[in-house]
Amino acid sequence: MISNYPHQFFSKSLTFNYVSLYKSLHTAIMHDIKYLIFKEEIFKEKNLVDVNHSGQMNLLEQEIYKLFISQCKNIKELEWSTSQPLLSFPRALTCFSQLHSLNIDLYYVNSDNLYEVAQICIYLNKLKIYNYSKKVPGLSSLIDAQRNLKSISFDTQRDLSSVSSYIKDEELSKVLAKKGSTITKLYLYCSDIIITFSFLTSLINLKDLSINVEDNYVANEELRKYLVNSNFPDLQYLEINFHLSCFKELAMLIKKTKGNILRVFIYTFNKTAENSGMLLETISNHCPKIEYIGTYLRPKDLIYVESLLMNCRNLISLSLDNLNETDNIGDELLDILTKYSPKSLTHISISGHWKYSIVAFKKFLESYRERKSLELCITVDDLDNHHVTNEHINIFKEYYDEGIVVNSELLGIMFSY
């Protein structure tokens, strides 16, 4: 009988209290234990959803959480993605009072739960919020209670039950602004629900910024507005995914840094975006330590690629995408990469409509003979345009077989050791 399994499992005495050694409490632990105990039943059951939500599984999960919470002192990391009332279990105050990292799934955790957490946990360094789809007052209270919050992440989702799917949580933005002197890392994924970007201007010590804004005109315009007015002098990592032209604003932001940026990745679905060259020029002039770059290239921007390679001598990875322009600059680009690439540059990704002559292609690959370990990815937007021919592929394979290029892709053909 399935009902006997939890009792049999927890009735066994242990020679040592292994549970007390745990410093992290993640959902994966619960899944692993439940699978271990109910493995045969899960394989036999046709409908896994019914099994996973059965009373037996829920009871087992509850007992596991009770065991960990009663035995563990000072858990450092908690992933709360369960409807179990964790804070009501015995010794919860002792267990969670020293939390440093907290992941919360708002699909399971409500505002009242967060108010309770705010009374217990005030030393969080890292906070991740998933399924943020409506205003949650308890969340603002939790953030406001923290004394040294350094990293915060939001994954916002559309609230399908709401008449209006666009929400501005002004109170949350105000609370985040109050933590501007401590927050050094921000990740924000925005769909139709959006946190007001006004707090960005308060994050004066930000080092790591990642924002993904979906196809929402109002959100994109607001992001552009506050990026221009923000100042992140210590910024090291920048990743922005947007739908409007934002290159100019990002260039202005980079100019105000101290020159310690190591990584810049920009993504856009707007193939008519302007000022891609301005961003390349700014990176070239203000990011001497940069190691990873992913951005876009227009034919008139080639001059900035040359200066970029000459000035950024620590560059390891370079990814350049075409902004839907048909001018053929393939050979010129390969020539620049051949002449000016720093020895550290071993990962190159190029995509677009560009053509590459056999001579330029082979000359570029030959330039890596001394360095080897080149990871090269060349793709084209139209597989029928024959810009990459069988002759290109055969030459590529020769250099791959010699070990000059590794883990690479040419026109969708993977080459990997």
From TrEMBL:
SUPFAM superfamilies, per database record: RNI-like (SSF52047)
Record InterPro entries: LRR_dom_sf
Name the UniProt record assigns to this protein: F-box domain-containing protein
Organism: Rhizophagus clarus
